[in-house]
Amino acid sequence: MNDPEIEGEQKREIHDRYSVNIVNEDDGSDVEIGANRGTKISEIIAEMYTDFRLERKPGDRLHCRNRDGVDVFQFSALTLDEYLERGQCPELKWAFAAETGGA
């Protein structure tokens, strides 16, 4: 028997799934990272480094592509939900440049 409460929760989980597009300004590659509203920004960043096969360096830059270039690293402790509630980069399109590369 189907439980309407469980079905509603499953629908919300699907609806609350987001895709973060990140372009690597050093080589032009890009990744799409799926995340839900409870995912930490730090987890998305970690997956980005894995997907780009890079290690984080102190001078790396990650910023919103469609807003005033706001740094994403500063929001690492927030969940995606908190990030979006603060009005940060609602398009979820980011740009990455390594310490020695990028524009």
Characterization of this structure:
- There is one protein chain.
- With 103 residues, the chain is of the alpha+beta class.
- It has one domain (18-97): Ubiquitin-like (UB roll), CATH 3.10.20.90.
- It has 3 helices and 4 strands.
- It has helices at 4-15, 41-52, 80-85; strands at 17-24, 30-36, 61-64, 93-97.
- The protein has a 4-stranded mixed β-sheet.
- Strand 1 (17-24) and strand 2 (30-36) form a beta hairpin.
- It is globular.
User: Which regions have little confidence, pLDDT < 50, spanning 5+ residues?
Assistant: 1-14
The overall pLDDT, averaged over residues, is 86
The overall number of domains is 1
Strand content: 15-25%
| Largest beta-sheet characterization | 4 strands, mixed
**Separation, N- and C-terminal Cα atoms:** 57 Å
User: Mind telling me which CATH architecture this is?
Assistant: Roll
CATH superfamily (homologous) name: Phosphatidylinositol 3-kinase Catalytic Subunit, Chain A, domain 1
Work out the helicity level.
25-40%
Rg over CA atoms: 15 Å
Approximate shape: globular
User: What class would the helix/strand composition place it in?
Assistant: alpha+beta
In short:
It contains three helices and four strands.
Q: What topology does this entry show?
A:
Elements: H1 4-15, E1 17-24, E2 30-36, H2 41-52, E3 61-64, H3 80-85, E4 93-97
Parallel strand pairs: 1-4
Antiparallel strand pairs: 1-2, 3-4
